[in-house]
From TrEMBL:
GO terms for molecular function: UDP-glycosyltransferase activity. Transmembrane segments: none annotated. Pfam families: UDPGT. It comes from Kribbella caucasensis. The keyword Cell membrane does not apply. Residues 399-408 have a biased composition (Pro residues). This is UDP:flavonoid glycosyltransferase YjiC (YdhE family). The keyword Flavoprotein does not apply. InterPro entries: UDP_glucos_trans. Keywords: Transferase. It comes from the Bacteria. Residues 385-429 are annotated as: Disordered.
């Protein structure tokens, strides 16, 4: 039996688990769903999925604190949970796995499963590393971080920052201390490095080789390399982004039907202050702005040109806008590519830097560090006014198109962003909605 464990403090991790659940259902493979709770738990309810909450449930306050302390944002000396929380969740999860005959735990950033799986003797599959995986570090593909966690690197030359970013993940125990204290007390295998904290026995890499630039992920092993659990393996499954089963509100469609340009601002799992600053900058331009506010209360910022909403089905919105602005989570980047919509990324941590860099080199995006948010209006104007771009690559487009919004005449051809006017146009690659998850070579070991 498979158990899916989404971290419902994150819309991205919750929606990815929904996609995996959908794929398993299509295969006729039963799965249980368990979570620690969180504000996006309602997405499970809306999808009609039965699930169990382990522990007291995450309040909005605790969820926000967790997100703010997470990898790339919080102090690397802490572990997002305190030791008592880690121990409690590990024991609850292990008991749940035993009680329900779980043999495979699939997690979206529910990091305690790295220990509970060892305690219960089950395999753990992760997807939350995205493209932030060892073959990327080993090929020195990580860009210099926009916001280094180590303040000593804030003013370092980019070449040094980039070198350390690629060398460090499997050599530093960042964010692992609490997990390792609990692992030692329980007598189970610990977590040797930051990279290992993001990897399972099998890690799903939701990207295609033409974007990632690596074609032999499945051949990678940790043999002879420091900082990894010996059982770690990778498999490429193709794009894995949300198709939330939500209708597009009539008021949203009415705004999208009006003359543009239209900008979609969807900065999820982001401090409200940063979202407010982005809206304030964009409000100086003659635009129609659609904001996916998710859990933030931003209603006071609404005007006749700014529509504030909660969670929106981005796969229905992005094909209808002229520019999408996100923090560069892999799901939003892939949704923009599948929609042929230029992307402006404001990355909060290194994994998002990587996601944006991968598509920026294809001419499909530009990035803006949060520290340079004062330039948002200028860069937005530049991207909207650039008429020399090729159609945006749709390497993330699923073979079975998601439900589409009501058709209407296009305002403009989908455009690439950036100034790479002479870059080679990539091929039109079509992938399964959840990549080749059904055919991943190692799956026989787990399912």
């Amino acid at each position: 039996m498979i158990c899916l464990l989404p971290h419902c403090a994150y819309l991205s991790e919750t929606s990815r688990m929904l996609e995996i659940h959908r794929a398993l259902t299509e295969l006729g493979v039963p799965a249980r769903v368990a979570t620690h709770g969180g504000p996006h738990e309602r997405r499970l309810v809306e999808a009609g999925i039965q699930y169990d909450v382990l522990g007291p449930g995450l309040s909005p306050t605790r969820s926000a604190a967790f997100v703010g302390s997470a990898i790339g944002l919080g102090d690397p000396r802490q572990s997002m949970y305190d030791d008592a929380e880690i121990r409690s969740y590990v024991q609850l999860e292990a008991e749940y796995f035993r009680a329900h005959g779980i043999t495979v735990a699939v997690t979206g950033f529910t990091l305690t499963t790295l220990l509970s799986s060892r305690l219960a003797g089950v395999q753990v599959i992760t997807e939350h590393a995205g493209s932030f995986v060892p073959p990327v570090f080993e090929r020195r593909l990580l860009p210099a971080p926009s916001q280094p966690v180590d303040p000593r690197l804030a003013h370092a030359p980019k070449w040094l920052s980039r070198y350390l970013a690629n060398r460090a993940p499997n050599r530093i125990p960042a964010y692992c201390a609490g997990f390792n204290r609990v692992a030692e007390s329980l007598g189970v295998e610990g977590i040797p490095s930051l990279s290992a904290l993001l990897l399972g026995d099998l890690s799903l890499v939701p990207e295609v080789p033409e974007v990632l630039g690596i074609s032999d992920l499945d051949a990678w092993t940790p043999a002879g390399k420091p900082g990894y659990r010996a059982t770690t393996r990778l498999t490429s499954v193709g794009p894995l982004f949300a198709h939330l089963d939500l209708p597009l509100p009539t008021r949203v469609q009415q705004v999208l039907d009006q003359p543009g340009p239209h900008v979609y601002l969807a900065m999820t799992s982001t401090p409200a202050e940063l979202v407010r600053s982005a809206i304030a900058s964009l409000a100086t331009l003659d635009l129609r702005i659609l904001v996916a506010g998710t859990i933030h209360d931003l209603a006071d910022l609404a005007t006749d040109r700014i529509l504030i909403e909660g969670v929106l089905p981005s796969h229905l919105v992005m094909p209808q806008v002229d520019l999408a602005i996100t923090t560069g989570g892999q799901g939003s980047v892939q949704t923009a590519m599948a929609s042929g919509t230029p992307l402006l990324g404001i990355p909060l941590h290194l994994e998002q830097d990587l996601n944006i860099a991968l598509v920026e080199r294809l001419g499909a995006a530009r990035h803006l560090p949060p520290t340079q948010l004062s330039q948002l209006a200028t860069l937005t104007t530049t991207m909207l006014n650039n008429t020399h771009h090729r159609p945006a690559p749709n390497t993330s487009k699923p073979s079975t198109p998601p439900p589409t919004a009501p058709p209407k005449p296009p305002r403009r051809s989908p455009q690439n962003s950036g100034d790479l006017n002479h870059c080679r146009e990539p091929p039109d690659l079509r992938c399964h909605r959840v990549g080749d998850l059904r055919f991943a070579p190692p799956r026989g070991r787990f399912i």
